[in-house]
UniProtKB/TrEMBL annotation, chain A:
Residues 23-165 form the Phosphoribosyltransferase domain. It comes from Streptomyces chumphonensis. It comes from the Bacteria. This is Bifunctional protein PyrR. The gene is pyrR. It is an enzyme of class 2 (transferase). A motif (PRPP-binding) lies at residues 114-126.
Automatic annotation (TrEMBL), chain B:
It comes from Streptomyces chumphonensis. Belongs to the aspartate/ornithine carbamoyltransferase superfamily. ATCase family. Pathway: Pyrimidine metabolism; UMP biosynthesis via de novo pathway; (S)-dihydroorotate from bicarbonate: step 2/3. Carbamoyl phosphate binds at R55, T56, R105, H135, Q138, G268, P269. Residues 160-306 form the Aspartate/ornithine carbamoyltransferase Asp/Orn-binding domain. This is Aspartate carbamoyltransferase. GO terms for biological process: 'de novo' pyrimidine nucleobase biosynthetic process; 'de novo' UMP biosynthetic process; amino acid metabolic process.
From TrEMBL, chain C:
This is Dihydroorotase. One of its GO terms (cellular component) is cytoplasm. It catalyses: (S)-dihydroorotate + H2O = N-carbamoyl-L-aspartate + H(+). Its EC number is 3.5.2.3. Substrate binds at H60, L61, R62, N92, N278, H309.
Length: 202, 328, 430
């Protein structure tokens, strides 16, 4: 999930509304297929593409994308994970967090086209941290970004190269991504933040 | 984990596993072109050493620097401290310099506890060995080494593993910390020493005590040899070096009686010929050098978990796991 | 010469029924009911307990030499607040009270203070070094009239020196008060040896280091037919030895401190040096044995071992800290809490253990006397119903190293009279 993007994804809203589905399982599959095709198209065959998912759900999305790329190109696409915890700019706002795994595929990222994969793009701070983390690992030829949902409200000059769904939201809303690998089912839910929900009741 | 690391007894199983898991990730840094993280940029870690211990100091120093912290080494030997300045005044000085963490090695048991609870400083206190009390980061790096070698991975503990600690238990801060931590992690700990070097009151510790090394070797998954100072002989803790080595030293013959997978550990520095023979010390089963390497990752994990988050906080990791809180 | 009259009205004398006590000048004139207040200052004492002025066998007044922690004046003011009318000032001053000159100086300073009688204790050996007897006779013959001798702080560990001292003081009915601590067994010792020391990694101070000396000294005292007094007895084992010695009819007495009646070594887990004391705080079992022994008379008396230290000597790490705690101003409250409120002692027995017996052991005249007409008016009035938190800021002692800071303790000394003159009135120094 790796969401510096506050109120991004993954976790259920504390006890706000359960949320209404904006993407169901089949939608997610279709969207990933489209992104895979776009990557092949833009990378002219995806020969040197390395997919790096941002934990937790970005990693699962990257693996799904890799499978789809393999279907399209007929050869395996290197896929790994990039934990950005130690590069976050908000570490001191919250208790120290457990680290997730950074797994760089065998041939590394030197000279490669790295496609970062995350579930929700929000403030852009996660991606900023990911770019810093990447810089300590090597020098890719280029870096691109694929996200399942772009919910807007950017705080940094960052945009995604591949977007599953543009989802205009208010800051009072939460976007919750569920993936079978983590959550037992696929789906994207739009809900109200607990505090906002409480405000409404008042 | 709390704001300080004073005693291994303060760590719950989940705290300890979190440190080990974090260290496991940080250990992978060694394979990267840039072995440094920006996490503690702008934070100051003071190594306050009232006792000489180059190896512990450089381990903490390397750990802090790999996390981009500013490191100030304050050796209290030969400074104003040895001229009668109190721990309190030293602490107030460090506080005035803006230390975010103080890593303290002190000859008096309890000095880190005192530093952490007296109100003299506001930062985190990490015990790097106090008198004959504790050395919790040593225990953590030992547990890390054990977990790696004995095959339980991330998230795992040492449940059911048998660890034997041999030597001067009475004066050993390493033994105290390890008894707490290893038992917290589920290991069965047995202490082996001549009765003179076992503290009165040991019956309250979560471990067994034996005076017979040969009897416990065949069932040990790891044997941790403690340094025994030759001076102890003069205080009649044992008759001669030769007798000590014969009864409690680890030689090739004894090592052969250990299970094939069993490790030989030593916190260093080793007294070759005393508690351990050269052939054992240099064998593949001896993890002494690996322990030093693991010390840096483990201390990075400790510094990160103490300093990497908000200044005041509950258990780190819990909030991260339960990211519902993060999203509100 | 004090010629005032004071009528203490309605006090429970030694915890008995309410009585009026009329003090005329330096002596008790009358004890009865419905006494006339004519011309007397009246102290309403309904519900309060009137005790003979308390006597402490073991006080460190620090003067001469460590006036930064206490002086005879501040120490005796603290004593008065605690209800004491006589204290024995220990000899471990700088210089050591091992000559007639030093003990006379301390004795004179006590008289000048006017708050409390100060009876100097003489050192047993020159410089407390344990090698050569000090001039015990000269100190006895001095104006200070020393009868109690102690190297307190150090043990007279040489068996021959101890034997000679015990023999020598027989000539003038003196007593050797032994600080029972076998030095080799306590090298580097920091706290009671046991479960807590093992965990904290602090050097262990075994009970046997005390008990072995107590055993030896009761045997020596019996052998030479002298009397020995055991300072600050702190272990259940020492209790057994003293009980056995007394059963043989030997002339052995013992004291216990208030802190050993209440506190245990569990407190050391805080590493707060306010709990660092010699002998060390022991276990719960020891505390209970000490209470039982004080109740059954095996331990003769309570002595404070009031040991003032300046702030900096406690505001540091455990190993660097000084040993000792102040006790004069909290002693009676702790005794009430641990012995009276638990039903182990009544107030008459408290008077025995905090006044009559210690005065008798120290051979004091004019102290530790009954509350009866014609006796010197050394009196302490205590309000046993009072409950309050200990606030060291209010201490008269120059030092604040009390282990009871913020603790709620019962009882309060409201008035202390030294030969008829109020040294404490309504809880405040007069």
């Amino acid at each position: 999930m790796g969401n510096t993007d506050n109120t991004g994804s993954g976790a259920p809203p504390a006890d706000g509304a359960p949320g209404r589905p904006v993407l169901e399982g089949p939608d997610i599959a279709r969207v990933l297929t489209r992104i895979a095709h776009e990557i092949v198209e833009r990378a002219k065959g995806a020969d040197d593409v390395v997919l790096l998912g941002i934990p937790t759900r970005g990693v699962h999305l990257a693996q799904r994308l890799a499978a789809k790329l393999a279907e399209i190109t007929g050869r395996p696409t290197p896929v790994g994970s990039l934990d950005i915890t130690m590069y976050r700019d908000d570490l001191r706002l919250r208790p120290a967090r457990a680290l997730a795994r950074t797994e760089i595929p065998g041939d590394g990222i030197e000279g490669a086209l790295v496609v970062l994969v995350d579930d929700v793009l929000f403030s852009g701070r996660t991606i900023r941290a990911a770019l810093d983390a990447l810089g300590d690992l090597g020098r890719p030829r280029a870096v691109q970004l694929a996200v399942l949902v772009d919910r807007g409200h950017r705080e940094l000059p960052i945009r995604a190269d591949y977007v599953g769904k543009n989802l205009p939201t208010s800051l009072r809303e939460t976007v919750r991504v569920q993936l079978a690998e983590e959550d037992g089912r696929d789906g994207v839910l739009l809900g109200l933040r607990a505090a906002a929900a409480a405000d409404d009741e008042r | 984990m709390e704001r300080h690391l004073i005693s291994a007894a303060d760590l719950t199983r989940d705290d300890a596993v979190l440190v080990l898991d974090t260290a496991e990730e940080l250990a992978r840094l060694a394979d990267r072109p840039i072995k440094k993280l920006p996490t503690l940029r702008g934070r100051t870690v003071v190594n306050l050493f009232f006792e000489d211990s180059t190896r512990t100091r450089i381990s903490f120093e390397a750990a802090a620097k790999r996390l981009s912290a500013d490191v100030i080494n304050f050796s209290a030997k030969g400074s104003s401290v040895s001229k009668g300045e109190s721990l309190k005044d030293t602490a107030l000085t460090l506080e005035a310099m803006g230390a975010d963490a103080v890593v303290i090695r002190h000859h008096d048991s309890g000095a880190p506890h005192r530093l952490a609870t007296s109100g003299w400083i506001g930062g985190s206190v990490v015990n790097a060995g106090d008198g004959t009390h504790e050395h919790p980061t040593q225990a953590l790096l030992d547990a890390f080494t054990l977990r790696r070698r004995l095959g339980t991975g991330r998230g795992g503990d040492l449940g059911g593993r048998r660890v034997t600690i041999v030597g001067d238990i009475l004066h050993s801060r390493v033994a105290r910390s390890n008894v707490h931590l290893l038992s917290t992690l589920g290991a069965e700990v047995t202490l082996v020493a001549p009765p003179t070097l076992v503290p009165v009151g040991v019956h309250a510790w979560p471990c067994e005590v034996s005076y017979d090394l040969d009897a416990v070797l065949p069932t040990s998954d790891a044997v941790m040899m403690l340094r025994v100072q030759r001076e102890r002989m003069n205080a009649a803790y044992f008759p001669t070096e030769r007798e000590y080595a014969r009864r409690y030293g680890l030689d090739g013959g004894r090592m052969a009686r250990m299970p094939e997978h069993a490790l030989v550990m030593h916190p260093g520095p080793m007294n070759r010929g005393m508690e351990i023979t050269a052939d054992v010390a240099d064998s593949d089963r001896c993890t002494a050098v690996e322990q030093v390497t693991n010390g840096v990752s483990t201390r990075m994990a400790v510094l990160y978990l103490l300093l990497g988050g908000a200044a005041l906080g509950g258990a780190p990791g819990h909030a991260a796991e339960n990211s519902a809180e993060e999203n509100t | 010469m004090n010629t005032e009259k004071t009528l203490i009205r309605g006090a429970r004398v030694l915890g008995g029924p309410a009585r009026d006590v009329l003090v005329d000048g330096e002596t008790i004139a009358e004890v009865g009911t419905g006494l006339s207040a004519d011309g007397a200052r009246v102290v309403e004492a309904e519900g309060q307990v009137l005790l003979p002025g308390l006597v402490d066998l073991h006080t460190h007044l620090r003067e001469p030499g460590r006036e930064d922690s206490e002086t005879v004046l501040t120490g005796t003011r603290a004593a008065a607040r605690g209800g004491f009318t006589a204290v024995h000032a220990m000899a471990n001053t700088f210089p050591v009270a091992d000559t007639a000159g030093v003990v006379e100086q301390v004795w004179r300073l006590g008289r000048e203070s006017g708050y409390c009688d100060v009876q100097p204790v003489g050192a047993v050996t020159v410089g407390l070094a344990g090698k050569q007897l000090a001039e015990l006779g000269a100190m006895h013959e001095s104006a200070a009239g020393v009868t109690v001798f102690s190297d307190d702080g150090k043990c007279v560990d040489d068996a021959v020196i101890m034997r000679r001292a015990l023999e020598y003081v027989k000539a003038f009915d003196g007593v050797v008060a032994q600080h029972a601590q076998e030095p080799r067994l306590t090298e580097g010792a920091q706290m009671n040896e046991g479960v807590v020391s093992a965990e904290l990694g602090l050097g262990g101070w075994p009970a046997v280091a005390e008990e072995s000396i107590v055993s030896r000294d009761v045997l020596l005292a019996a052998h030479v037919g002298s009397r020995v007094h055991i300072c600050h007895l702190s272990t259940a084992g020492s209790v057994e030895i003293v009980r056995w010695a007394k059963s043989k009819g030997w002339n052995v007495t013992a004291e216990v401190t208030p802190h050993h009646l209440l506190l245990t070594d569990e407190l050391v887990r805080s590493y707060d040096p306010v709990y660092k004391v010699n002998p060390p705080l022991r276990t719960r079992d020891d505390v209970l044995a000490l209470r039982a022994a004080l109740a059954d008379g095996t331990i003769d008396c309570v002595a404070t071992d009031h040991a003032p230290h300046p702030h900096e000597d406690k505001d540091c790490e455990w190993g660097a800290a000084a040993m000792g705690m102040v006790g004069l101003e909290t002693a009676l409250s702790v005794v009430q809490h641990t012995m009276v409120d638990t039903g182990l002692l009544d107030w008459e027995q408290v008077a025995e253990r905090m006044s009559f017996r210690p005065a008798r052991i120290g051979r004091l005249t004019g102290q530790g006397r009954p509350v009866s007409p014609g006796e010197p008016a050394n009196l302490t009035l205590v309000d046993p119903a009072y409950r309050g938190r200990v606030d060291p800021a209010g201490f008269a002692s120059r030092s604040r190293n009390t282990p009871y800071r913020g603790n709620e303790l019962p009882g309060r000394v409201t008035h202390t009279f030294l030969r008829g003159r109020a040294t404490v009135t309504d809880g405040k120094l007069a």
